[in-house]
Each structure stands twice: as C-alpha cells, then as structure tokens.
Amino acid sequence: MTEWWFNTKTQEVEEGPQSLWVDRLGPFATREEAARANEIIAERAREWAAEDDEDD
User: Fold this and answer.
1) Among 6, 20, 33, 42, who pairs with 37 as Cys (CB 3.0-4.6 Å)?
2) Residue 16: left (phi > 0), alpha (psi -120 to 50), or beta?
C-alpha cells in the first residue's frame, strides 16, 4: 500500500517518505488527501479544540 506525504517546505506531495521528517506531514492514504494536508490538519485542530472546550 502506497503512503502519501505532504512536504511543508516544498509544498508538494510525495509518494512515500522522501524528505526529512521535520518537513513532511502524513502519511495519507491518497495523493488527494496529502494535497489537502494543511486543510485536514486545521480541521482536526478545530475538532480537538472543541473537545477541549467541552471538557472545561
């Protein structure tokens, strides 16, 4: 199974881990998901923040 990564330095999608771990987000199941990495991470952060607010 191929894993896809998003390189935060080059802003490009990579097939498999090609760059340093500090420069990449993932893994993602598809190229399309990796291309949306910043959006997906922002969505998750909003969800986690909402959960934290519920716990207060």
Assistant:
1) 6
2) left
Q: For residue 26, is pLDDT > 80?
A: yes
Q: Point out which residues pair with 6 in neighbouring strands.
A: 13, 25
| pTM metric for this prediction | 0.81
- Pseudo-torsion of CA 27, 23, 49, 47, nearest 10°? -30
Return the residue matching tokens 């991470």. 41
**CA torsion through residues 1, 26, 7, 32, sign:** positive
Instruction: Write down the residue that tokens 């909402």 correspond to.
Output: 50
Which amino acid makes up residue 53?
D
